Amino acid sequence: MRKLSTLKLLFASILLIFTGVYLLYYLGVHNTYIKTSRNNGYDGYDINLLEKPFLGIQTREESVFSSPFRVTLFTTFSQSQSGRFEIQRNTIRNWNQMKRSLGFNLVVFLNTSSNYSSDLLSDWGVIAYTPVMLRFGRPVLKEMYKAVMTKYDSHIYGYVNGDILFHGSKLKNTLRYIHDYCTRNHTDKYLIFGGRTELTFQNKKSTKILATGDDNEIEELYRQGKLGQLTALDYFFSSKTSFPWALFPPFVISVYSFDSWLMLYSNKAGVQSFDITNTTIAIHQRGPGKQKTKGYKAAEHFNNMLFYKSFRATGKMFSLACTKWKTISSTNGSISVERISNITFYTDFCIPKGPIIIPNDVIY
């Protein structure tokens, strides 16, 4: 009996030693794999994880590109509605901070005469409108993208409405993360959207003027505002090739429908749509409404015609709730991407029935 107990003890000891050796071997191999994966640009995560719904990949210190990460922002300003001039000057101050501290390219489309002093726009590229860029006296978005992409070499390009302020560092970190993430995962087609925080900057009695427009000031203003409507889409980011701007109809900006079309087209055509609201601060300077001139009404009618020739859609389809991915921020500040848990994404809730009919009668 004693001999049997000794044999059992010996067997258990051998089994324990074998298990320990195996664990040490496994951990050694696993750690070696992680280091190798990092060298290959996968941040130490199992490549198979990239196919799963939650992608907990931290922001890296360096981009997948050896050159600095370049962003070009472009917009247009009202040159006739004097009530909007101070709000637009706030935008210039804020964007100038992003130019000086983060190296953003800043571009504004204007008529030949400008209401802004040369010192405010000294860091900006100014592109004068050509006839092809205008309909009803208002800018055509696709022509603006084409002009900017031809003139500037950047990883990411973004049209932004002229009354939007950004926390520059958060914006750049988020755009850089998505660009690197899409590069790692061979995601060729994508478009980046996001929400805005509403804050009144101008009323009949006063106008809020930015002191510097730096990130600290923007963060303080952000705490005073509230999240705006999920269908209010004021900025769009892509690389030169991640969205087919050549196919985009000649929508006019600053009137309805062009932003909604972008969301619907992206989801219908398989362009990956990202919502960066959670990791970006974008403040809408609420102020005077747009002057609805004869040209405005004609442009509005034109945009609606383009939109309803392309889709039969409802308002819920072009909400940020219908983006496919969203960025999230962890407690330590790292950024990751998560597939939005929307069980109705592939139903009529987010994607309209039937083909996309581009208004030049080409069907996709």
Count of discrete structural domains? 1
Series of H and E elements: HEEHEEEEHEEHEEHEEHEEHEEEE
DSSP strand (E) fraction? 15-25%
CATH topology: Spore Coat Polysaccharide Biosynthesis Protein SpsA, Chain A
Low-pLDDT stretches are: 21-66
Q: What is the first-to-last residue Cα distance?
A: 82 Å
Q: Helix tally?
A: 7
Shape: globular
Q: Decide which structural class fits the backbone.
A: alpha/beta
Helix content class:
25-40%
Mean pLDDT across every amino acid position: 81
**CATH architecture call:** Alpha-Beta Complex
CATH domain class: Alpha Beta
Strand arrangement within the widest β-sheet reads 1-16-15-13-9
Q: How many strands in all? A: 18
The Rg value, from CA coordinates, equals: 25 Å
What characterizes the major β-sheet?
5 strands, mixed
What descriptors fit this protein?
364 residues; alpha/beta; five-stranded mixed beta sheet; globular
Secondary structure: elements and pairs:
Blueprint: H1 2-39, E1 54-55, E2 71-76, H2 85-102, E3 105-110, E4 125-128, E5 134-135, E6 138-139, H3 141-151, E7 156-160, E8 164-166, H4 168-184, E9 190-193, E10 197-200, H5 215-222, E11 226-227, E12 235-238, H6 258-269, E13 272-275, E14 282-286, H7 294-310, E15 325-329, E16 335-339, E17 357-358, E18 362-363
